[in-house]
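[Automated response] Your request has been received and processed.

Submitted sequence:
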Amino acid sequence: GNYMMMGGSVKGGKVLGQYPDDLTDDGPLTLERGRMIPTTPWEAAFRGIALWLDIEDARIEEVCPNIQKFNSSVIIEFDAMFGEILVPAMPSSVPSMSPKPSTSNPPSSSAPA
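Generated structure:
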């Protein structure tokens, strides 16, 4: 399958993994009716995403149970997918949950005529 990622820290504008050299019906990765054998496993990208989500490397097999079945050369490293992760600044004060009366348009005490 194909998948794409978007976001502020995603290094975009490139294809990660191996693009097939031959897309014809006779290509070595072509099955039938336009279906292709993928060259890059799901685990290749999901390992980097799991690390971005702060999953410890020691627990990656819980997220990607088949990762050990693949050669490490097909695994896409975190740094290839993501740049600097910017953490938004926290507000300096906690907003109040109770409404404050508006002073811009105070209610009129006289009834309309």
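Summary generated for your ticket: The helical segments are 42-52, 60-63, 78-81. The CA atoms of residues 41 and 70 lie 8 Å apart.
If you did not submit this request, please reply to this message.
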